[in-house]
């Protein structure tokens, strides 16, 4: 099977530190792929390289059959790579609905007031449906800056989905969420259409095993193991890495 996304021999150096050292990754169409590993393993750096936010010293990123290595983050988002960050990034003065509307049409001017009426209505309609899906319908008119952390996290997922991604990059989406919010997040991710592949960075292994059908393990900027959740769960190498200290 060909990869929807492939990262090949990716190396990122910060001075003498190799944050990534020749890492390969393949995410198939519709796959739920988890990326795990100890703090500082290079997980966020790899998401940054895939999203186009960090330029590697070496290596190639291919997406949907194209070499996208030279494209910036906006161009990659237009091709279907959308992400949520380790810390939620929303527009604090815009309402929840407006945040999703703005995220829906990245190629058009960021001010929805300039859009043609039909397009604006369609975007607002879709934003309403996404907020409903994420359990935020009651907060549609609240400025995003007034939302609790967990609600902002859900809002950012709605914004990422508004761009109709083919690949959703999630960096520790459960961090800082209450148990109820984590439950909702799991439901939302499980309900995502299979047209959307997911690359999930997550420390909580219960979530990883509940959500993923493939797991890659990074350690010290290198791939330690890759396989099915069962293979990773029982891998002596991975057990050792976790025994050595993972959050
Ligand atoms: N901009 C930067 N400048 C210098 N060093 C960096 C930079 N970004 C990351 N690093 C270093 O690269 C390594 C990998 O960092 P990265 O954030 O990718 O790890 P991570 O696996 O996401 O960790 P965590 O689980 O703590 O989020 C770490 O040693 C980190 O300190
Ligand atoms: Mg990280």
From TrEMBL:
Stored SMART domains: AAA (SM00382)
Keywords: ATP-binding, Nucleotide-binding, Transport
Coiled coil (residue ranges): none
ABC transporter domain span: 5-245
GO molecular function, one term: ATP binding
CDD domains listed in its UniProt record: ABC_Mj1267_LivG_branched
UniProt xrefs under Pfam families: ABC_tran
SUPFAM superfamilies in UniProt: P-loop containing nucleoside triphosphate hydrolases (SSF52540)
Keyword Ligase: no
The name this protein goes by in its record: ABC transporter ATP-binding protein
Originating species: Micromonospora tarensis
Taxonomic path: Bacteria, Bacillati, Actinomycetota, Actinomycetes, Micromonosporales
